[in-house]
């Protein structure tokens, strides 16, 4: 299927889930994860109407930026090394992987304007995944008030890759509860209204549990390197 057909299918699913759960479909943003596809395939996504593109490596982002001039919002969705911050932050609108104070400090030093950030939470507590434990998030967000260039718009998590997406529901539900708890604190630097969760394998469940940004690779643009995303 073409990217346009894939995008239309995903938008149809979003509309259906939102109708069922009483949400506005416009509240769900599709981020096309282009890390495993060519510049040409990424451009197909833009032509299909996708306005959010995500990369997980500084080098991958640089390669896409060399060739893609269209006006889109770039998301950095992978772990970002402090030494690569200066190469990345001038080009992105969203960072999905804020998980340590050293990164916050470097970001704030390099930014000329406010950056929308998601705090990454390792809800499943998998050793292979980055992110804070749920119990650490509130204190971490409070400390981020020291860095005025960072606007904490929400939380992000990655669920384990499982055959039955229903198994991911408790993880997404836990992140939603945490997001509401943080939002209720009314931190001026951390409105925390957004949830970045759900990928190709489980985005339908994530939307049902409140995702506002879903990060879709294989199901949208395909996977020319045949890796899981």
From TrEMBL:
Where the record annotates domain Alanine racemase N-terminal, the positions are: 10-223
Co-factor(s): pyridoxal 5'-phosphate
Q: What Pfam families does the record tag this protein with?
A: Ala_racemase_N (PF01168)
Q: Which residues carry this modification: N6-(pyridoxal phosphate)lysine?
A: 35
Q: Which UniProt keywords apply?
A: Pyridoxal phosphate
The organism's place on the tree of life at top rank: Bacteria
Write out the GO MF terms.
pyridoxal phosphate binding
Record's InterPro entries? Ala_racemase_N (IPR001608), PLP-binding_barrel (IPR029066), PyrdxlP_homeostasis (IPR011078)
Q: Provide the function of this protein.
A: Pyridoxal 5'-phosphate (PLP)-binding protein, which is involved in PLP homeostasis.
NCBIfam families in alphabetical order = YggS family pyridoxal phosphate-dependent enzyme
Recorded family membership: Belongs to the pyridoxal phosphate-binding protein YggS/PROSC family.
Q: What is this protein called?
A: Pyridoxal phosphate homeostasis protein
Q: Which organism is it from?
A: Alkalihalophilus marmarensis DSM 21297
Upper classification of the source organism reads: Bacteria, Bacillati, Bacillota, Bacilli, Bacillales
